[in-house]
Amino acid sequence: MIYKLNNVIQNYAWGSTDSLSTLFGVDNPDNEPQAELWMGAHPNGCSQLEDQNVFLSDYLNEHRESALGQYTADRYGQLPYLFKVLAARTPLSIQVHPNKRNSELGFERENQLGIELTAGNRNYKDPNHKPELVYAITSYKAMNGFRPIEDIIVMFEEVGINALSDDVAALKKNQDAEGLKTFFTVMLKLSGSKQKQALANLEQCYVLTSLSASTKQALRYSQEFAKHYPGDNGLFAPLFLNIVELKPGEAMFLHAETPHAYVQGTALEVMASSDNVLRAGLTPKHIDVEELVVNTRFEPISSDALLLSPLKKEGASHFPAPVDDFKFDVVEVTGSEKKLYVRSAEIVFCIEGVVDIISGSKLITLRAGGSIFVPYRAAEYKYKGKGQIARVYN
User: Fold this and answer.
1) Catalytic-residue membership of 279
2) Global pTM?
3) Of 89, 147, 279, 391, which one is the catalytic site residue?
4) Which among 7, 5, 28 is positioned nearest to 89, based on CA atoms?
């Protein structure tokens, strides 16, 4: 048995007004920003089984083992992942997701403090970590992880922000995790006259021409951010975070405790089922610098190591994620009927084309933007048509 899903759209301010409608035929009669389409059982945006008109979470509670499989039911007790379409028109906040243990502790602590789950100053919405995989549907701009420390130093010395010269010198003297932590904290906490001077110095750099290509790129990002968040400390982020520009069909992985920001474009996003976000800048929302720094891993990474190399077999591309919460495949559907075996509870999303999904006597036709839930007890399903589907399981 398989089930067509009705999914929740999150109308966050940074969302595109036309991407979901153009790519996937999603109605937008009021021309609202449509930022994310959620597929899963998270309480902040739970999918429904269309033909039964019940929430996926209720179905899973009633049929836990047959829907999830014994292993997933015993280990997680719930659907362990959340699957999204993300459509960013303007930059998302610079953010970090806490690890599993800190999420559990933070969630319990804020519960004991009586902070409402919907409160603006709430950091922990659930007790789960949130590693993520991002697969580009369109060209997709993002920042992911700290640049190598020597690259950060070179870039800041090249632009010559006088107000930060002592801080750059301190990082140059201490090129390790502690030095990077100190520098990052200084960037986030800039205030008063030092902040004004540093931002004025940065603005003067936007017109410089005799710079390296990577520094020019970082300043272009910063200048674009300034249009949306003038005076924000996050304007310095492109100088110390890796810039990643994914082409359609490319994917990257983001570990918990990694500073990152999605900038522009439409992508599929798979994560552990969590909505925990600690923010550092480029946002009008709650920022908690101390909590974010505690939950950040200060390990630089080369931008060359950020892309995932897919494993290809029989028309399917598997993008290996180094976590157990989810697995992600993209399957090319080229006409003739083929079979897939079900390893666990699965969500299938149609990226493009028209694809028939058959399980037993039930057939569901998916068009771009449509999705289904496949319970573990289905054991297998067939597909045919012409298009492309993404499948998430664990």
Assistant:
1) yes
2) 0.93
3) 279
4) 28
